[in-house]
Write a structure and sequence with these properties.
Layout lengths: L1 H24 L15 E4 L2 E4 L4 E7 L2 E6 L5 H10 L7 E2 L4 E4 L5 H38 L5 H34 L2
Antiparallel strand pairs: 1-2, 3-4, 4-6, 5-6
Helix pairs in contact: 1-3, 1-4, 3-4
Length: 185
């Protein structure tokens, strides 16, 4: 019974960490990363499609992204989607390839990105605490249904707390690494 609760809790906490990593990967750090374009969708072939399904995205230089469409007829649609995105980067279209020069971040912008990363980290911690509460509620219910003893329930809640502390520490590590990456000049 308790192992089932722990397993489910661990899976849910892992998904929270994955979601945080995904959120943080979209934050610009002043370095070119193809992940910056993960959220861009393009109106193509009568529907909205992710950019990475329509083009090859590369980072040939530290401050440059390139977008090479598989179908050159989609070049204008891709350029339009990049302009409409909230990246704040102006694409340069040469007829075959779109270049996205990544501007260097100023100190003020870096601090804004660190604040945003901190916000995402705090949201992930709140999500972990909610998952901890759900697991503890399941343990209490199991105890009240006489499926487990009072001692087992206390040990179970202690184990849930240790797991939560472990994942909170992982979130802190992820945030600190991202903060360092953003603040590097």
């Amino acid at each position: 019974m308790l192992d089932e609760i722990y397993g489910e809790l661990k899976d849910r906490m892992d998904k929270t960490l994955d979601a945080l990593r995904r959120e943080l990967s979209h934050l610009r750090t002043g370095k070119a990363s193809p992940k910056l374009l993960d959220g861009v969708t393009v109106e193509a072939y009568g529907s909205k499609m992710p950019l990475n399904q329509l083009a090859t995205i590369g980072a040939p230089e530290p401050r440059l992204l390139t977008v090479q469409p598989y179908d050159h007829s989609q070049l204008r649609a891709i350029e339009k989607a990049l302009l409409a995105s909230d990246l704040g980067i102006t694409p340069n279209n040469d007829g075959n390839l779109i270049r996205l020069p990544i501007p260097a971040l100023n100190e003020e912008r870096r601090k804004e990105y660190v604040k945003l990363a901190k916000k995402y980290s705090e949201e992930a911690k709140v999500a972990l605490r909610n998952k901890r509460r759900d697991a503890n509620d399941k343990i209490k219910k199991a105890e009240s249904d006489s499926d487990i003893s009072e001692d087992e329930a206390h040990r179970g809640q202690d184990k849930v707390q240790k797991l939560t502390d472990e994942y909170v520490a992982k979130i802190d590590e992820i945030f600190e690494a991202k903060e360092k990456e953003i603040m590097e000049v």
